[in-house]
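Board notes (copied after class):
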Amino acid sequence: MDSTGPIVLAGALVGFAVGLTGMGGGALMTPIMVMVFGVNPTAAIGSDLAASVFMKPFGALVHHRAGTVRWDIVRLLLPTAVPAAFGGVFLLRALGDGDDLQQRVKYVVGTALLLAVAGMLARLWLDRRRAVGGAGSEDAEDAEDAEDAEVRVRPVATLLIGLVGGVIVGMTSVGSGSLIIVMLMLAHPRLQANHLVGTDLVQAIPMVAAAALGHLLVGDADLGLAATLLIGAVPGVLLGSVVSSRVAGGAVRWALVVLLTGSGLSMLKAPSAVIVLGCLGAALLGTTVAVRDRRTARLRAAAGTADQTAPEDVAGRTGPLASAPGARRPR
C-alpha cells in the first residue's frame, strides 16, 4: 500500500502545529513516523532532522525581517550546540546496533518526549506569569521593549544550553523548539517571547543541519522520506503562521501536551492504564487552566469597564452621587 499520501498529510498537520504554536516539530513527527508508519526509530530521527533543515528557515526569515533575533545569544549557542548535535548522533550509535538499538532508541525518544512535555508546561506557566505581571500597566509594552534591549546575556548558561540541547536534538530530533526555548526563558527571563522564538529558530538551523549531517553519514536519514514530509510540512507551516496571527494557539498547545504525553509513555512501553491516566491528567489540567483563564479575563474586563465609567460619573456629575440630595462634590 502506497503511504505517500498519508505521510504528506502527516507532514502538513505537523507543519501546521509548528506554525501555529512554534512547538512540536520533532516531538510530533518522529513518534508519528515510528508508531503510525512503522519507520525504524533511527531512520525516523534522521529523516525528521533532514526535513527540519529545509522547514525552519521559513520561520527564521520572518523573525529576521522583523528584527526579533538576538544575534548575541545565537553566537553563544552555536559553538556548543552544533558540535553537540553532531556528536549526539554517534552517542546514539554507541547504544548498540540492530533490533537492540532500535528498542533503546524508542526509550531515548520516549524520555525526550516527556522532557518536551515538561518543557511545554514550563513555557505555558512562564507565559502566564508574564501576562499576569504585565497586566494593568499602560506602559507595559514599552517597558518590556526597554528591558529586552538591556538584557545581559549569560555566557556560561547559554553555552551549557547549547551543549545540552544539541546532544538531545542529535540523539532524538526532539527539543529544538520545545526544550531549548524553555531553557533560554529560564536563563534570560526578561527577554520578550517573540525574541526568544526568533533566536531559537535561527540557532536551530545550523544545529539541526549538523545533526542531520551526522545521521546522513551513518546512513540513518532517508532523503526520500524527508522530501515527502516536506511536501506537506512547508505549506502547513505557512498556513499555521498565518492562522497564528488571528487565532489563539492555547488550545492547540494543550492538545500537543496530551498527544506528546501519550506518545512518550507509549514509546516507554508503559501499561495502557498509565497512558490513559497520563493523557486524562494532561487534558484535565488544560481544561482547568482554560476555565480559570476565561474567568480571570471576564473579571479584568468587568474591572476595566468599571474604571472607565466611574470617572465620567464624577467629572460630569451624572452618576448617583451627583444627583443625590446633599451629595458632597468631589474636591
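Comment from the instructor: Confidence is low (pLDDT under 50) at residues 136-147, 318-327. The two ends are 83 Å apart (CA to CA).
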